[in-house]
Amino acid sequence: MNLTLSSSKKLFVLDTNVLIHDPAAIFHFQEHNIFIPMIVLEELDHAKKGVSELARNGRQVSRFLDELIKDANQKNIIDGLPLSRLEHNPNADSAGRLYLQTSQLSALLPSSMPGQLADNSILNVVLALTKEYPETKVILVSKDINMRIKAAALELNAEDYHTDQTIDDIDLLYSGMTDLGADFWQQYGPKLASWQELNRTFYQLSDEIVSEWYPNQYLYSEGETPFEAIVRSCDGKTAMLEMARDYRSQHNNVWGVCARNREQNFALNVLLDPEIDFVTLLGTAGTGKTLLALAAGLTLVMDRKLYYEIIMTRETVPVGEDIGFLPGTEEEKMAPWMGALMDNLELLGSRSGHDEWERGASNNVLMSRVKIRSLNFMRGRTFLNRYLIIDEAQNLTPKQIKTLITRAGPGTKIVCIGNLTQIDTPYLTPTTSGLTYVVDRFKNWPHGAHITLRRGERSRLADFASDVL
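Above: the chain sequence. Below: its structure as tokens.
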């Protein structure tokens, strides 16, 4: 092949898994050029069949490529297709060119790497391009770790696909709370204006520190005068704070549940607030995410009558081997996946009666207002006046979680809960998970809130196991 390449631009060779993971990947390399081997097109053709997310992504890649080659002749394809031709390319002004393999590229691979394997065929193309165009930096982009290891063994440049990462380091993810320091009152007390309204205490602060705050962020101070407040509004110069309610005492419990630590107390504050439409809860196993979300939901549905019912759904990704198809209706098929829901409902129902008959009747009433739904049937639906809980949200891609959140109609509240250390979906990492994506994108919205639960409250056995295992 005779490619017209500039030494100032890099040439990225895309692996199949990159395109299936993100169909718009060809638009995310700015001014640099892209090369797609013929074996990648073959793999895309095999992957496009079916109704799974991967199959849909494979078909979308084919549509993008079809738009690019439309009205192009053989010479145009050899010279490279300008990516700026597509109107929906965000980098159209500085986009490079897309090259498709149009002839055989051969290089000498080690005898231990036969060319019949798809991965080795791609490596063969990268090796040939590297030798044929020594002045151009050729880089293989792949989500497959073993593919990148094999490339490194051949002394080829290889990188992971980072463009879809919400943040560079998961430790930098917004936690939803800030420690103001023990000297908060001494330092900022004279600048605080306070007043009471509808039995609630409010403060207003104008200082440089408020530029670091976000709406509905949790602020606390552990000094001699403990302080816990929620940022109700913030414009970068002035912030209005509201004292947080204390749900730690039994007389102020939520469906029999009391907050056991600071993070749980804030979680109940935002879960019970009808002005907050979207809540994300992160935390490891045993931090109380599902229990708090359900207790708040039952209070809002059964006591305050703000929502008609609770709808709970989750991504059905098995931890071990798949047990196969499940019989029954939609709810019966989803029941084995909803063990956490049943465990917590049983706990909440047991607190509503003294004898077995009362508890049984309470469980029947609760189950009549809690519906289990599958993610597969969510597209096209609109939920009105519902309290929607999305469990195990760390296994959702940004596209999937967008599909779910946009189902919300007037009067609906959505709660996303998950644990970023327990991702079971292939090619998803803590920095590319849909849950990380929404936490970062919603932190500036005045009707959204986030909290990271750090302390486990399950049992001393579970706490010890989390620390030492």
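The radius of gyration is 27 Å.
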